[in-house]
Amino acid sequence: MKNMKRHYIFCLVVSVILLNYCDRVKEPYNPCALDNYGINGDKILNPDEYTLYLLVLNKIKPQGQQKVLVLDSTLFEDFTDRLDNIYEQIPELSPETVQNYFLKNQKKGIIGRLPFANKKFLLIKWDNTKKVYVDKNNHSYDLKDSCIYGIIFLSYIGFNDSKTQAVVSVVDYGAPLVAVSSLVFFVKEKDWIIKNETLLWIS
After folding, report:
1. 143 three-state secondary structure
2. What is the pTM of this model?
3. Into how many domains does the chain fold?
4. What is the pLDDT of residues 60-103, one digit of tens each?
5. Do 179 and 193 sit in the same domain of this protein?
6. Which among 59, 53, 56, 71 is positioned nearest to 150, based on CA atoms?
7. Cα 46 vs. chain centroid, distance in angstroms?
């Protein structure tokens, strides 16, 4: 009887440990989840990502022949210290979406394939040797040049599990001095739409 009782307790303890382990694995902040949820390298955008980046970029309106530079490496805003304020401004925003945003942006990455609507948008990278921004043809760009609108920095996009809402952070650095950072909130109704755009900082 004692052996049977011990066996029962042992099985119960093992079951509890396994259940707790499974919960931890499902926790979005767990590093093990990066392989499932993270975006690594120059991957092809899925249709949702393509649509959302396009919605963001279509809001940018360069004047005349101005070029809009878009950095190929991600830059995200850490707004953990303002989460309560963010939730107040975007009541529909799910913590699940926020967690996925932070998870995907734990590591800096490359967004090498973006939906540019026209030739006014140029994907560029930082050349650490020359200390300038360059395009794929190694042509350099100066943000002080009047024909440059400015430079756009994008984060990876965070989604909820059902892919009905998403967030991305965007820094619109207008040449040469003005910069605006915002958190863009999308919802999928019939199609994806921008539901809210919350200012994070301005300089």
Report:
1. coil
2. 0.77
3. 2
4. 988 888 999 999 999 999 999 999 999 999 999 999 999 999 99
5. yes
6. 71
7. 14
169 DSSP β-pair partners:
183
Q: Are residues 3 and 16 in the same domain?
A: yes
Q: Which H or E run contains 2?
A: helix 2-26
d(Cα 200, Cα 190) in Å, to the nearest integer? Answer: 28
For tokens 């967004």, name the residue.
111
Output the CA torsion sign for 106, 152, 51, 40.
negative
Q: Are residues 71 and 9 in the same domain?
A: no
Which residues form the domain of 11? 1-37
Q: Is 127 helix (H, G, I), strand (E, B) or coil?
A: strand
Strand partners, 153: 171
Q: Are residues 154 and 113 in the same domain?
A: yes
